Amino acid sequence: MCHLLIDSFVNRVSAGPTVTFVGHDASRTGAPVMLCSFLRWLQSEGIQGVELALLAAGPLLSEYRKVAPTQVLTSGLLRSSEQLSAVMGSLGHPIAVPSSIQGIGLRAIAASEIVMANTLASLSTARLLAERSAQDGKPADLVCHVHELDGVAERVLPASPRVREQLLSSVDRFAAASEAVAAMLVDRLGIPASRVTVIEEFIEAPSPSSRAIALARQRMVGEANRPVILNVGAMSHRKGPERFVDFMSTLVAHPSLPIGVWLGGERGSSVWLEMEHSIAASGLQDFVVLLASTEDSASYIAAADLVVSTAIEDPYPLSVLEAGAAAKAVVSFESGGVIDMLRAVGHAELLLPIGDTLGMSAAVATLLDNPSHRELIGTQLSEWVTATHLVEHIAPALWQVVKG
Amino acid sequence: MSAAEPTAQNPVIWIAVHDLSRTGVPVLLARLLQATPVQQRRVVHVVAMFGGPLLSELQNLCASVTVLEPSDRRSASSAASLGLITLGMSRAGELVRHSAWRAKLSRRPKPDVLVVHGAGAWPVAQVVSSNLPVVLHLHELEMALDRSIPRPEQAAAFQRAQQVMVVSTPVAELARSRGAHAEKILMVPGCVRLLDADVQEADVRAGDVPDADVPEGKAVPWVLGAGTPGWRKGTDRLAAVAHELQRADSPAQVGWVGGRPSGADATAVGRTDLVTWIPESADPWKLLSRAAVFVLPSREDPLPLVALEAGLYRRAVVAMPTGGLPDLLADGRGLVGSRQDVRWFVGAVQQVLASGALAEDLGQRLHEFVRTHHDVDVIAPLWLQAVSQAAGR
User: Fold this and answer.
1) Which residues of chain A have a CB within 8 Å of the CB of B299?
2) How does pLDDT run across A3-28, given as a tens digit for each residue?
3) At CA A110, angle to CA A109 and CA A116, rounded to 5?
4) In this predicted model, what pLDDT tens digit does every residue of A359-379 receive, in sequence order?
5) Same domain, A141 and A244
6) Which of B296, B359, B286, B289 is nearest to B328 (CA)?
7) Residue A10's pLDDT is what?
8) Architecture of B13-191+375-390 per CATH?
9) Residue contact A355–B147, C-beta within 8 A
10) What is the gyration radius of the CA atoms in chain A, in angstroms?
């Protein structure tokens, strides 16, 4: 598979073809946030002819609309036909709604030369758009930016092997969010390596104000002089919140009395309630704080002392890149791009096998005991992220994959 | 066994259960029915919302088993119901589903009492006459109860039930806190069949367990548990145990009978997983009886049957404190934490692995307690009597 060297993209890009991006929603989660960064970069580069279609709305919608014409396909015939297919499939009578009918739901979207699905979850719709944009019998180029690993891919791709194969083979180019994602595409989904390019996740340089950082610190720990161990992520088992609570239960005897903060998720959701239950049952009410998703995660990361990732499957969490940019040490279970990041800075010892809660506890305790070592690692991560994984470093490579 | 008309002595009993999987709640139902006199079983009709591997066993134990919904797909009525609910027509959606269920149940003899065996089967109570006496056998703690019966509807559910049977003291406390009157509550805990277990125990001692079913390496001490993987059973904690044992150069291996975690609980493909995941089986104790330590890492578990079964097989149990486990394992009958604490849990497993004498002592004490307090031949008549009383017979 290709691995574009980001150093080779030093030339400014020029205006390119018309492109329709298709996103599964506008939530404040990894893939949508990265797409927003990318669209902002395209705008800053003066690239025209870009449009965005979303399968569902979300808190990022207004930001999307500032950087590209954006439409939400929430209630059209497209959704109805998808629901009909799902219901009939669940009844054991799968039907294929003719694409001409489904396409009616997409008629507000202008034809374009290239259609890019921002996730596997939005690929089916992107394919319809590509077919609808056909000229002289040739559909538009179809590109898929894959931010998923096996568990999520299994859930969002068609269950039928034949339909799945048809869908994946219709894609001209894949951008994989990490080496782990590329390995899944090639080794397990059978996609030729020549169609896959690793484009690692990137972020815009965070710049929270000192006031925002102080407020975030206040929300996490109040006035107490206790270290904050932060985990940022949606409240789903894939991100391992139950492991985070268990991990914090191993640190209650640490002399610094650290506070664990989980930032992300929706208050009252089923997993949120499970975590509240676990916190109470573990006697951790004074040691773990749950905070709902916020648009200002950078302030919380900057206000933390240490960032951990307890995810059991994560292609490339943006929060660890943001932690690196903020010069925070990161300790993580080994999954996806965080492996590449910590190895790149020579700190593979901060990667723990998935589920090794006591191993993670020991690694974190060592860093809590040694603030200067922690700061050194943070500095190394900051240098690496700001030199290699900001939008200006990688967006040109992604644009190259999009254009073909 | 064919259906029979009710007699004055034997009321017609409908027993609703969420599914017929090989898990605690359905297994306990089968066990209670096995210990029920044949004459009385002839007027028992099981109504399962979903099917499962226990179907044929239960069909042999009662007059009929009606499965309301297919397990592998959505029924037409369920799909229509879901569609209506999605469109905001909840009442109409419920009507569609309830009508389909009533039609399926119309050929069964009219019940004198409905036993809701586990809160997950509460929806069945909504399709029977509101005058029908209902017994709720509660096997759930807070999270599971709230998922089975919406919180705002719980008080009405407990009011409707003539009797609320509970499997442990924390379940009784929960029922009381959610609106059940104390005088309605009756302790009917999980139970085991002593005779079968003793026979199998003799087999184990004679080394007569089929080797093909035993995890590789017979000399390896196994740390084993069983159940449906997920947050509730705390199966994610097994990795913590396995890694710590590896770090300590312990030869012990960690395994779980009940299948591999799936969906959002599945470990990333290709990453290290030291836990041996063993599919569920009709007789898991062929394997589990070989455990050096039997573990219960549960976050929420009212009184797992496997804990009682571990006692039958004289296994040393290490458990997280949840539901009835602290009471069951008190007084040296097992090791149970004072709070949900992974470090303590791992240490307790290591402690048992390090001392055969401790393991033997814990196993023997639990064995004696289970024989005395959880014999199905004692519990089943108590259960049946409570059901009959609720039916007014």
Assistant:
1) 242, 274, 277-278, 281
2) 544 433 334 444 567 999 999 899 98
3) 75
4) 999 999 999 999 999 999 999
5) no
6) B296
7) 37
8) 3-Layer(aba) Sandwich (3.40)
9) no
10) 22
